[in-house]
Amino acid sequence: MPESADPPRADPPRGADAASHDALWFTEVVRAYSTALVRYFARRGPRQDADDLAAEVFATAWRRRDDVPDDAVLPWLYRTAGFTLANHRRKTIDVPVDEVPEAGTVRVGEDPELAALFDAELRGALAAVGERDRQILLLHAWEGLDGEELAAVLGISRSGADAALSRARKRLRASWGERMSF
């Protein structure tokens, strides 16, 4: 779930240095969204890489600060994070899913055998739906995006994002049902 609304990017005061204004805007963006980006990467890859990958996204935001839409900073960051993660995955062999998100119903309790079984079935179900469906499901479930924000991250219309989420959920339900053994 997004942590806060997009920080406003007000016009710089008359006579103010543009670089100073950009630095202030960037500081607010980092302050508002750093935790969300680190969580995004930690949920999708090795936790030890999450801070570095988030920093890479912020470096891109700084370089392309004129391209970041004022009314959709977080979706722009998530979209950039998706590209950054894809590039990172090309460099690594194994990208484990360490755990189920921190919120939700505990289904396996403290039993390590059930936890391992559940984790394997979850990984299998997510792997079976395909990369785009998996991206949509994780953006919705872990990052709390839907509607306009999901559409902005995916680069499609709102109705297209709603339809894509619905199709991804249907495919996950079918895949999960085929695998669920307990």
Would you mind describing this structure in some detail?
Helices cover 66% and strands 0% of the residues. By secondary structure, the protein is mainly alpha-helical. Helix 4 crosses helix 7. The radius of gyration is 18 Å and the shape is globular. The mean pLDDT is 79. The two termini are 30 Å apart. The chain folds into 2 domains: 14-93, Rna Polymerase Sigma Factor, Chain: A (Orthogonal Bundle), CATH 1.10.1740; 110-182, Arc Repressor Mutant, subunit A (Orthogonal Bundle). The chain has 7 helices and no strands.
What are the main properties of this structure?
7 helices; Arc Repressor Mutant, subunit A; globular; 182 residues; mainly alpha
Question: How is the secondary structure organized here?
Answer:
Blueprint: H1 18-44, H2 47-63, H3 73-91, H4 112-128, H5 131-141, H6 147-154, H7 158-179
Structural class: mainly alpha
CATH class placement of the largest domain: Mainly Alpha
Q: H/E order of the elements? A: HHHHHHH
> What is the β-strand count?
0
**CA(first)-CA(last) distance:** 30 Å
**Do you know the CATH architecture of the largest domain?**
Orthogonal Bundle
CATH topology label of the largest domain = Rna Polymerase Sigma Factor, Chain: A
Tally of domains: 2
* Envelope shape: globular
Helical stretch tally: 7
* Average pLDDT metric: 79
* Major sheet: none
Stretches where pLDDT is under 50 for at least 5 consecutive residues are none
The CATH homologous superfamily of the largest domain is named: RNA polymerase sigma factor, region 2, helix turn helix motif
Strand content: under 5%
Specify Rg, calculated over alpha carbons.
18 Å
Determine the fraction of residues in helical runs and give it as a percent range: 55-70%
